[in-house]
């Protein structure tokens, strides 16, 4: 990019921006967070002051034509992701966006194509792809440790909303209460779906699965009222791959356990790997491996090269994992090379998987992948 510093504007000053995005960027000495936008003037002022971000605006559009900004980081509510992302790409900015870019994978693919046409790089907030343990596991897989992958098991489950009084954002207040809406599989399942595709390394061919609403009434974050919220707070899916591999995905935010609740397992012809990303007893991640000649799983030490400078597994996971995500994007942008992992094309693949899972449940059948448009969508 022909410069020493990467200049980032963060759009959205809420909880996740404060816990992960802003501190993640600011951990990297090559990056400067130069602007912060949020429609809440008091919030943007308070957060800007706390993190030392001098430029604070309530309309993100004020930032798009500024040549002193390289990256727009979108960490708003889901409903505005696509609008802000598209505007930023059209303005020639690289974009980091929280998932999903859009609930329709075809729109995410459009955004990926727009970025490609303009020579821009993109990245999805697939936080757990950048956990040091997950990155280390991928290196082991690529080196042949598991041999041919046979089975992948993915879990994203914790008890964050087991208590219905814990406020949860209602994505669509006008949704039909008699029809279950996608929530867990998209917000919580997407990161483990991303890891599934990345580790298995073969095109997916078909899926089948189901969704459940276990806790029907919840406090809505925006209103503070107990409301019927018919969402999938528990899911189970099976997937088949071109290579012959099989995968299972289980996602839920009403299963007893600690946050974030990620576990990824891969079993192959030569060995197996289990990565667990759960804050327990002061540690946020572990990796255990076994081989066909030594079948007892043993914990491995994660090499320091997978951590940000000075980082360790006793850090809070949002800070540690997101520091790695931001560092990786900075590496990709400042190097000028072709590398761009976890980009919008990967986001479109993950969202298409989510959309396929949903269709399988709606139609109560196996559904082929890639997803073909339904007759209604084709019209």
From TrEMBL:
Domain of life: Bacteria
Keyword Oxidoreductase included in the entry's annotation: yes
Entry GO MF terms: nucleotide binding; oxidoreductase activity
Sequence ranges assigned to domain Gfo/Idh/MocA-like oxidoreductase N-terminal in this UniProt record: 6-124
Domain GFO/IDH/MocA-like oxidoreductase: 134-273
InterPro entries, per the entry: Gfo/Idh/MocA-like_OxRdtase_N (IPR000683), Gfo/Idh/MocA_oxidrdct_glycsds (IPR050463), GFO_IDH_MocA-like_dom (IPR055170), NAD(P)-bd_dom_sf (IPR036291)
Gene3D superfamilies: Dihydrodipicolinate Reductase, domain 2, NAD(P)-binding Rossmann-like Domain
Keywords: Oxidoreductase
Pfam families cross-referenced by the UniProt entry: GFO_IDH_MocA (PF01408), GFO_IDH_MocA_C3 (PF22725)
Keyword Nucleotidyltransferase: no
Protein name from the UniProt record: Gfo/Idh/MocA family oxidoreductase
Organism: Streptosporangium carneum
């Amino acid at each position: 990019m022909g410069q020493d510093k990467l200049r980032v504007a963060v759009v959205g000053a809420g909880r996740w921006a404060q816990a992960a995005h802003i501190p993640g960027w600011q951990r990297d000495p090559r990056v400067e967070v130069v602007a912060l936008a949020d429609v809440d003037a008091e919030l943007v002022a308070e957060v800007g002051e706390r993190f030392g971000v001098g430029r604070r605006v309530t309309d993100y559009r004020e930032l798009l034509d500024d040549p002193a900004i390289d990256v727009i980081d979108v960490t708003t509510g889901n409903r505005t992701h696509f609008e802000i992302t598209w505007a930023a790409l059209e303005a020639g900015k690289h974009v980091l966006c929280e998932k999903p870019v859009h609930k329709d994978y075809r729109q995410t693919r459009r955004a990926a194509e727009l970025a490609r046409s303009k020579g821009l790089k993109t990245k999805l907030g697939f936080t757990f792809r950048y956990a040091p343990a997950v990155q280390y596991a991928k290196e082991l897989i690529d080196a042949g440790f598991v041999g041919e992958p046979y089975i992948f098991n993915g879990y994203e489950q914790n008890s964050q909303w087991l208590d219905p009084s814990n406020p949860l954002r209602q994505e669509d207040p006008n949704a039909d209460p008699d029809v279950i809406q996608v929530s867990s599989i998209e917000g919580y399942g997407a990161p483990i779906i991303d890891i599934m595709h990345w580790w298995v390394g073969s095109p997916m061919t078909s899926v089948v699965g189901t969704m459940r609403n276990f806790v029907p009434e919840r406090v809505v974050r925006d209103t503070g009222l107990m409301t019927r919220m018919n969402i999938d707070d528990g899911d189970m899916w099976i997937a088949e791959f071109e290579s012959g591999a099989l995968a299972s995905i289980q996602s839920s935010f009403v299963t007893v356990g600690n946050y974030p609740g990620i576990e990824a397992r891969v079993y192959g012809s030569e060995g197996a790997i289990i990565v667990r990303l759960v804050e327990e007893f002061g540690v946020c991640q572990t990796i255990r491996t076994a081989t066909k000649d030594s079948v007892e799983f043993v914990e491995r030490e994660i090499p320091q090269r997978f951590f940000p400078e000075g980082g360790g597994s006793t850090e809070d996971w949002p800070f540690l994992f997101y520091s790695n995500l931001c560092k990786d994007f900075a590496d990709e942008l400042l190097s000028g090379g072709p590398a761009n992992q976890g980009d919008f094309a990967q986001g479109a693949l993950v969202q298409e998987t989510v959309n396929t899972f949903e269709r399988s449940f709606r139609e109560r059948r196996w559904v082929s992948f890639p997803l073909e448009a339904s007759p209604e969508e084709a019209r």
